[in-house]
Description:
The structure is a homodimer. Chain A is built from 19 helices and 21 strands. The first copy, chain A, is globular and about 80 Å long. In chain A, helix 13 packs across helix 14. In chain A, the strands form six sheets. The first copy, chain A, has a seven-stranded mixed beta sheet with strand order 14-17-18-11-10-19-20, with helices on both faces. In chain A, strands 7-6-5-8-9 form a five-stranded parallel beta sheet, sandwiched between helices. Chain A is about 40% helix and about 15% strand. Chain A has two domains: about 20-320 and about 550-565, Aldehyde Dehydrogenase, Chain A, domain 1 (3-Layer(aba) Sandwich), CATH 3.40.605; about 325-520, Aldehyde Dehydrogenase, Chain A, domain 2, CATH 3.40.309. With about 575 residues, chain A is of the alpha/beta class. Chains A and B meet through helix 1, strand 3, strand 4, helix 18 and strand 20 of A and helix 1, strand 3, strand 4, helix 18 and strand 20 of B. Strand 21 (about 560-570) of chain A pairs parallel with strand 20 (about 520) of chain B. Chains A, B: Keywords: NAD, Oxidoreductase.
Amino acid sequence: MQCTPGRPPNAYADAVDADTLDQAVAAIRSRGYYSAFPESPSPRVYGPDAAAEGQRAFEAWEGRAFPVSVPGADGAVATEKSPFGIPLGVRYPQVGAGGLDDLLTAARAGMARWRDAGPDTRVEVTLEILQRLHGRVFELANAVMATTGQAFVMAFQAGGTHALDRALEAVAFAHTEMTRHPATMVWERPAKGDPVRVEKTFTVVPRGVAVVIGCTTFPTWNSYPGLFASLVTGNPVVVKPHPRAVLPLAITVQTCQEVLAERGFDPHLVTLAAEAEDAGLAKDLATRPEVRIVDFTGSGEFGGWLESHATQALVHTEKSGVNPVVIDSTGSFRGLTANLAFTLSLYSGQMCTTSQNIYVPAGGIETDEGHKSFADVGAGLAAAVDKLLADEARAVELLGAIVNDDVLGRVERAADLGEMVLESRSLDHPTHPDAVVRTPAIVAVDAGGPGDPGDRPYARECFGPVTFLVRTADTSESLDLVRRLGHERGAMTAAVYSTSEPVLDAAREVALDVGVALSENLTGGVYVNQSAAFSDYHGTGANPAANAAYVDAAYVTGRFRIVQSRRPAPA
Amino acid sequence: MQCTPGRPPNAYADAVDADTLDQAVAAIRSRGYYSAFPESPSPRVYGPDAAAEGQRAFEAWEGRAFPVSVPGADGAVATEKSPFGIPLGVRYPQVGAGGLDDLLTAARAGMARWRDAGPDTRVEVTLEILQRLHGRVFELANAVMATTGQAFVMAFQAGGTHALDRALEAVAFAHTEMTRHPATMVWERPAKGDPVRVEKTFTVVPRGVAVVIGCTTFPTWNSYPGLFASLVTGNPVVVKPHPRAVLPLAITVQTCQEVLAERGFDPHLVTLAAEAEDAGLAKDLATRPEVRIVDFTGSGEFGGWLESHATQALVHTEKSGVNPVVIDSTGSFRGLTANLAFTLSLYSGQMCTTSQNIYVPAGGIETDEGHKSFADVGAGLAAAVDKLLADEARAVELLGAIVNDDVLGRVERAADLGEMVLESRSLDHPTHPDAVVRTPAIVAVDAGGPGDPGDRPYARECFGPVTFLVRTADTSESLDLVRRLGHERGAMTAAVYSTSEPVLDAAREVALDVGVALSENLTGGVYVNQSAAFSDYHGTGANPAANAAYVDAAYVTGRFRIVQSRRPAPA
């Protein structure tokens, strides 16, 4: 196996060990605030050299053949193109359909030994991997930034520390579920005379090879829960990155292979399956009989295909949705507009949790600043976005870059969709002149009255920085649209603003019916598009946007089985 | 809603209440011995009148229209035919494909109220249903006996008290998983100045309509875990019984409807979907978009169809397998043969857990009685079966009756399959002259040496009282066949007899690889075909015989989702 030279252990923070696990396990029960990986990239937290060292480590990959061991690979591919124009050209071992036999055989080779290591050892090794990845967090952050277009701090957090927290959350759930029964015990049934005694053992066995299919925008955050939930429960994992965002997952796989090998396990328990764009490897992989788990983030179309075709596997999908905000009334118009402006701007709205449709009654709303007409609400939102993004140097650190031409096309054609409330602007990036940076567009449209909203422009996902301000008859119609589109198209998030408890109750009822997480009256520093690991579930699995959540028990329990043996025990 | 007159509450045993739940929850963690429903039908346990009252209650249904409320039903069907020749002729509301809209609309009508009742109330109501069913346990036992051909005591236990224990086990798992997070809490993130405080609620929401597809042989035992796991987690349940075994589930649905109505919930949260034989209702139901959970027990063919076609639903299947016994050596030849004789005879081997293939080395085995040739082992087994069934009046209480003509045909043609070691005999039933009673047949065959065993007669499920004594080169070949057939055809149980720890270790390794529960050296009163609720998992989900287990966390966690709402909390 080809590996990079040994790295120093993570010197940044506390060790990720059994205490960490205990705290994480407590947090997933209490749902209280917890984080094991400090989210501030400040030198005060990570030391004066960490940022520069991480950047150098990232830059050293440029144009190189990435050293990761992939049986069955044939040749190399370099498929990445940075939305910031950051040079990449990293070459990865290429896996074609013809190499899958070798890849999957290698993946399975170490499975029995990894299973026999038992839950505690697997957890310990997985925590060591997380600690090692934390030691490379600045390198990871640069890789995430370069490939996804996330601005640096966001890449550090969402792509680094928050992703690690979600991974730890998955490990904590898995440990809890793998150890809820004793490994061995003696069962004793009362009987005439001596009781019947039977010694029983209960072994956690893996389901089989797991495939993780990554996305362009959140290669680590959306892949880590599935990757580490599968690995820690004993399954080999083949990581199939999106061709535009390989490096963050290549670094991840490399780290997994290093730690596994150091601990005496087969490094091919985690492998990377890179491919040329549109080579169709995910379909081939996901339907192989050896593959028993698939974790997917991406389009609704392909997610649906996986659900109905990869029937030999347990399939977890996070797809797409139409995220609603219902504005009924507010006690803080300024807070409301500022809060939503941040959500719409962050990473140019390229999050699966970004609000898309803001429903406002045609007659306007009551606020702490008096009555606001529909136009006033639009103007208030537009002004809040303008204010937030007034300083271009700071704006680019919030917006990041547009991830691909599809998103760019949608924002450039936003005027076709309705009446422009806020035009998107192109900004120059002060340090990355090739970066494609756009501010959000807001488009006013009519809800369209009764009847099927399915063919109206706002009724489909419009991924990226285009928000619909939807004019409804009243809040009741707004909620009805949330319900209908939630059931038909799905939603990852929903928000409501109202000073009326009956309206909030009605919104909660709709959210329960749709099965979508609801944020109520957020006017401060908590945003509808953000979720906190260990406390907030990401997705629910209850509507078409996703069939699973990060992280609940259902997300981990299907990844392993319990196999018992029993024999008579001496009296 | 049409209901039977009020019944007395269960006077038989302790109340099924919060204490019961606590004990059940403790048992599923410790895996220690526990039972909430006494398995002895003795008058000392259930009182002097219980048996006669239960029999009268059962007999009163003969030829009647069974009173259960089923929206969408059109006409009635009477499809049952007792293997004992016991008169039935009970008519049930018939559901055709044309009635499914009404049925599913009615099923969903009460869902929000049932959801809003919350986990604790749902558990309480479900425990009340179990207690009420326990109050009808003799009636249920007679219904199970009459429809399945199980002898009375087995019908009382497997069809009554053990089924109720498995139901309680599912409720205990579901309660644990539904309440692992707080219903509401305040999250507090440290921040500059005041902490950020957010009030969060977490609501368990049901997945959708659940369909339970019952089987002929264990209409209650195999249906209760799925039925009550789905109901207690908030889902409406449509029970689709096998046309030959409707009454036990009709009684069950009636009891559910009574308790739900008494507690102010919609009785149509549980309904019965009876159909004419071969009407194909299960396919229509299982693929409806409203149906989000399917629990199935039956053939491998239809189970596989459900797994690949009902992709809109979470599908749990228990199908078929080829259950192996490996005989390598033993310290108690008498114990071995007596133990296996009981397993082969119980309910004429018509259990999904009955051993089918007994692998014995051609050169024989070492035992406490000296060397036994292959023929000696067969003769010993045959003698043990003969001894167990020598008294015909007692034999019929173990054998029960042959459930249908397919099984009868297989046992009558057993001689075509190999060399007869033990002929099946036809017994007269002393009290049911029309009963079809057969003793088990044992057939010796050669393993067949290297190559694919897939087309040999012993390599496919041969459901019923036909056992193959398979002559192998040695124990190594025996284990190899367990592995190969386990992977290809599946197995619900496996057993090994050996005095050698290395052989036992090798058998354990094979069992882990196949993913099948292993029983080692059972020579006393514990049998490979029996599993104890709260301690033994039934099935694993890890091989083709079943994709789920009774009851582990994975069996319940997918039946509900957690939907949260959050709002800023006062400082």
